[in-house]
Amino acid sequence: MALRVIFTKKLLRSGFHPQPTSQIVLSRGLQTFSLPDLSYDYGALEPAISGEIMQLHHQKHHQAYVTNYNKALEQLHEAISKGDSATVAKLQSAIKFDGGGHINHSIFWKNLTPISEGGGEPPKGSLGWAIDTDFGSLDALVKKISTEGAALQGSGWVWLALDKELKKLVVETTPNQDPLVTKGASLVPLLGIDVWEHAYYLQYKNVRPDYLKNIWKVINWKYANEIYEKESS
């Protein structure tokens, strides 16, 4: 039971805050998660991201992480109640992978918004100033994130984060579905870009740099700024 509580606290520190449609549901004392709704239609991010990709990404891939995460939590709950330490240890990789997939995608959907609703508009306010201070310019930051995302071997994520300990913005990458918190407890995700093939392959084939070039047209800098102002105050 203690392990589940610790992991839930890590979810919150990672920047994942459940919304009404993805609230933690209590059933027989077990915490489970549900797929969050999107605040826009699947086709609303076109032409940067196709509606087909968004639907598959959300309904199939994210849903699979949620389903498998809940299954692993249920097995963990059962193993702990039985004192089965071997099974508890065995389940940690599934919890990290599927729980991380849920955390990361829940952030990713909020990092995107249609052009008609401000997608791609440069960050304003304190985040804009911080980007200029820590990276020189928004263009320099975009280039750094795109370059590191394109260079990431295999599957994973590239992040813009606030390091609360250093009080500065940093760019980090994480492999597979590792959430940003695995790189340091002081890191708060402001912007995460999925560079798994399922995020772009149907539209951009195997040309990840093209995907990373066009996704900036629908980035929700307003949301990133809101998180930055909240966490840096």
From TrEMBL:
Its cofactor is Mn(2+). Its EC number is 1.15.1.1. Its main location: mitochondrion. Transmembrane segments: none annotated. Mn(2+) binds at residues 57, 105, 194, 198. Pfam families: Sod_Fe_C, Sod_Fe_N. GO terms for cellular component: mitochondrial matrix. It catalyses: 2 superoxide + 2 H(+) = H2O2 + O2. Belongs to the iron/manganese superoxide dismutase family. It is found in: Mitochondrion matrix. Keywords: Manganese, Metal-binding, Mitochondrion, Oxidoreductase. This is Superoxide dismutase. One of its GO terms (molecular function) is manganese ion binding. It comes from Cannabis sativa. It comes from the Eukaryota. Residues 123-226 form the Manganese/iron superoxide dismutase C-terminal domain. It is an enzyme of class 1 (oxidoreductase).
